[in-house]
Amino acid sequence: MKIAIVCYPTFGGSGVVATELGLSLAEHGHEIHFITYKQPVRLELLSKNIHFHEVSVPVYPLFHYQPYELALSSKLVDMVKLHKIELLHVHYAIPHAYAGYMAQKMLAEENIHIPMVTTLHGTDITLVGNHPFYKPAVTFSINNSDVVTSVSKSLKEDTLHLFDIKKEIHVVPNFIDIPKKINPFTECQRDLMAEPDERIITHVSNLRPVKRVKDVIEIFDRIQQRIPAKLIVVGEGPEREACENLCVEKGIEEKVLFVGNSNEVDKILCFTDLFLLPSEKESFGLAALEAMACGVPVISSNTGGLPEVNIEGVSGFLSEVGNVAEMAENALKILESDETLARFKKQAIESAMIYDTKKIVPLYEKLYKDAILRKNGD
Ligand code: GMT
Fold it and tell me: Residue 101 Cα, ligand 1 centroid: separation in angstroms?
């Protein structure tokens, strides 16, 4: 199949999933066209089946806001015609589903009919999309997609609860290439980060308020009072400065390393003992799944789709949002002995297995084939 993938090219989870999906589909022999404003961060190598088309938005000073959706839908129309693309898969409803719908309408004028699959990722529903200013447009674009998928059961329920949805929503969970994650490095270089007796704890996110990064610091502070430990915070975002200040206030700045955005998350996870994700909302928690696939147990909140990923008492523990005391106690339970830690590490990998790429990507392929058949039969 010839498939166009529209996504955010940045470090966010939806862009990562879209990129990994495209790469996997290309390996299966499909021709993949990424269409977005920048080359996606995880799309390092362009291969035979992978193409990238940049959407440029000319800056016109009269416009207070430059019309990205317009440029995107025009680019979609041009690329579909040029490359004979058979299906659009848009990730994140805003504004991609809306732009995709407009592209479909323009193409239909020329008698080109291609289906659009929309994948809902989380904040496009629970935070941004739900805002009254966007809600009518988001509802409309979901209801007018040919196929709608959500990355967890919980997100499907939230979508049905928050919007007036007439379409079936298929749950296609996020996925991870487990064989690529298990022990890819011969040398973890743990000694660069910590002393041999210190446990290494990691948090990866875009450091937005929804991730509750201050809770990460609070949990770590309680842990380090009981056992030797270091915290690595990966990512950039608005909460970084306040969290760095909090570390200084608590006198733990020497034990916390803010490393910014990184393309080497797997290397960091290789020597990590525990992953913290105390988010306010999390439709799935791809970062937790990535950690688990690398053999890192997870302490998380129990919000959204996290209970579908992090299994209580198996891959880690879950607590109510904000219950940092319980999260710290649970973390210490896992970290208290090498034996317990080794057991949780093994169980984390086993729990991640159900989301292996090989099991999930064929679900998308089946939805694509059916959508194309249906569209041709319309
Ligand atoms: O929350 C983020 O870090 C970014 C955001 C995005 O859209 O890029 O992530 C959402 O989509 C991910 C991939 O499907 C999910 O794993 C995250 O749980 C989800 N984030 C939230 O729901 C807050």
Answer: 23
Asked if 365 and 340 sit in the same domain, the reply is no
Kindly state the tokens that stand for 197. Answer: 């007796």
Q: Per the structure, how many domains does the chain have?
A: 2
205: left (phi over 0), alpha (psi -120 to 50) or beta: beta
- Provide the pairing of β-strand 169-171 with 147-150: parallel
| Cβ of 151 below 6 Å from ligand 1 | yes
Query: Ligand 1 center to residue 251 CA distance, Å?
Result: 32
Short-list 272, 260, 261, CA closest to 185: 272
- The per-residue pLDDT for 186 is 57
> Would the CB of 283 count as within 6 Å of ligand 1?
yes
Residues 192 and 226 in one domain: yes
Is the C-beta atom of 122 inside 6 A of ligand 1?
yes
Beta bridge partners of 50: 32
Say how many Å lie between the CA of residue 13 and the centre of ligand 1: 5
Same domain, 324 and 197: yes
363 and 266 in a common domain? no
The answer, yes or no, to whether any atom of ligand 1 lies below 6 A from the CB of 290, is no
Q: What is the pLDDT of residues 261-276, one digit of tens each?
A: 988 898 899 999 999 9
230: CATH: 3.40.50.2000
Q: Is residue 173 in contact with ligand 1, taking CB distance under 6 Å?
A: no
Check residue 168 and give left, alpha or beta (phi > 0: left; psi -120 to 50: alpha). Answer: beta
- Asked whether 206 lines ligand 1 (CB < 6 A), one says yes
- Segments of the chain with pLDDT less than 50: none
Say what the pLDDT of residue 107 is: 98
Residues sharing a CB contact under 8 Å with residue 132, sequence separation 6 or more, in sequence order: none
Residues 182 and 329 placed together within one structural domain of the fold: yes
- Whether 282 lines ligand 1, by a CB cut-off of 6 Å, is yes
- The pLDDT value recorded for residue 45 is 62
Q: For residue 67, what are the domain limits?
A: 2-175+357-377
pTM of the predicted structure, to 2 decimals: 0.93
Q: How many A from CA of 14 to the centre of ligand 1? A: 6
Q: Are residues 319 and 276 in the same domain?
A: yes
Calculate how far, in angstroms, residue 150's C-alpha sits from the geometric centre of ligand 1.
11
55 shares its domain with 77: yes
